[in-house]
Amino acid sequence: MSEIFSAMSVARTILNIMGLKAPETFAPAIPIDKTAFFADKVCLLTVDSLGSSLIKHHKEKLPFVSSKNDCSYTLKAEMPCKTAVNLLSQASGLGFDYHGVITKDQKFNAETVFDIMRKCSLNTQIVCCENSTMHILFKDKTYKQSLTDITTDEAVAELLFEVIKEKHIDFIWCHLLDFDKESHRNGPLGREAASKIAQVDFLVKKTAALCKENGYTLFLNADHGHHIVHTPFARGIHDGSSDDDLFIPFMHFTC
Ligand SMILES: [Zn+2]
Ligand SMILES: [Zn+2]
Question: How far is the C-alpha of 108 from the C-alpha of 186, rounded, in Å?
Fold first, then answer.
């Protein structure tokens, strides 16, 4: 297996691509392949629950994501294996032991990539559903908030496309939630989850084309993976008890 990096590495990696210096406390960057082309504006697309093993399993539903990435790394999600923990670890370059955030409504002091970019007069925007963990954690930190009344990945993607075409946001972080919701409901390997995955592939393909046209480097990752359970309440879970929850992708696209 190739080298595995920490999810915390995302923060410094993104700052590096944008030519910004990360604080010493941030985890080391992913030693990304510098031969690929990198624009200095960055779009990070986080697909909730899309762990590395699920990308493999649903490969046929992900023709673009599986074959068109320029480089792909494996990261290990932070424990506890929850969305808030992992979004903040990726944004702050610090682990759960330091930032201590486990639920989306918790206040935190950790410095994030948004704070560092703001100090450098760069514009940042999150693009996500209003009730999402990303919105609740970061809405006060960004130059521009995502719009209200957005509840599906399709609507999130429409907004993402508009923001990319406007060209004036330096760092866009988009969070897609439908695959996670469907994975809890009917299991991450089920037919319903597969159809959400196919939709993700279509959105990534369109996003990659728009990023290229408008001067963005596109990265795709996840917050954690997901695995099957059989309880009266759920068919899928991410509690860190399986490697399927822990290993997540970090991919770069230029096409
Ligand atoms: Zn999540
Ligand atoms: Zn979930």
Answer: 34
Residue 175 has pLDDT above 80, yes or no: yes
Cα(220) to ligand 1 centroid in Å equals 14
Cα of 241 from ligand 2 centre, angstroms:
14
Q: How far is the centre of ligand 2, averaged over its atoms, from the C-alpha of 49 (Å)?
A: 7
Of the ligands numbered here, which is closest to the C-alpha atom of 133?
A: 1
Q: Give exposure, 221-237, as e/b (b: 16+ Cβ within 10 Å).
A: bbbbbbbebeeeeebbb
Query: What is the domain class of 4-253 according to CATH?
Result: alpha beta
Closest ligand to 84 CA?
1
Which sequence spans correspond to the domains of the chain?
Answer: 4-253
- Specify the DSSP element, H or E, that contains 44: strand 41-47
Closest among 60, 106, 54 to 221, alpha carbons compared: 54
For the segment 51-82, what is each residue's pLDDT rounded down to a tens digit?
999 999 999 999 999 998 888 999 999 999 99
pTM, full prediction: 0.96
| Closest ligand, as measured to the CA of 50 | 1
**Pairwise CA distance, residues 213 & 209, whole Å:** 6
* CA 195/CA 61 separation, integer angstroms: 8
The residue to which tokens 């037919």 are assigned? 191
Is residue 90 within 8 A of residue 11, CB to CB? The reply is yes
Give distance in angstroms: CA of 180 to centre of ligand 1.
7
Contact 92, 99 (CB under 8 A): yes
